[in-house]
Amino acid sequence: MLTLTLNSRQKKIIEEIPLVSEFSHLYFYTTQSDSDSEFIAILDSVIGLSDTVLSKWLNITPRTFRNYRNSTNLILKENTKEHVILILSLYKHGIEIFDTVENFESWLSKNNLVLDNRAPFDFLETISGIKFIDDRLTAMEYGENV
Known about the structure:
The chain is mostly helical and 146 residues long. Helices cover 63% and strands 0% of the residues.
């Protein structure tokens, strides 16, 4: 699993995050969770990409992302929270397959012929794009070249 510098509460949150493919579990997890500040802190700790990339995925400005990061009583809009949780779930799955964040992000950043010569992280700005990339990860688990 994740062996990053996460505290015990953050590790527990990562373990509890449902799989991207578990739509009903994700919905209830998102609506019932009140760990918005922790989600942003985990996202910031786990993902080795710039604020610009993360904010692009979340359809917010880098300044807004930095404000989220610095807020201790953060309450995210439901669609933003869902997006953050799905990205964390995707990373959880990707790290299981690629062993490290660095290996997973390397795969995410490279153009891929199966994806019409686009990089997987180009798809992470939408929920359906995250689900699509997660499906590609599952296909890799079953031996497909993706």
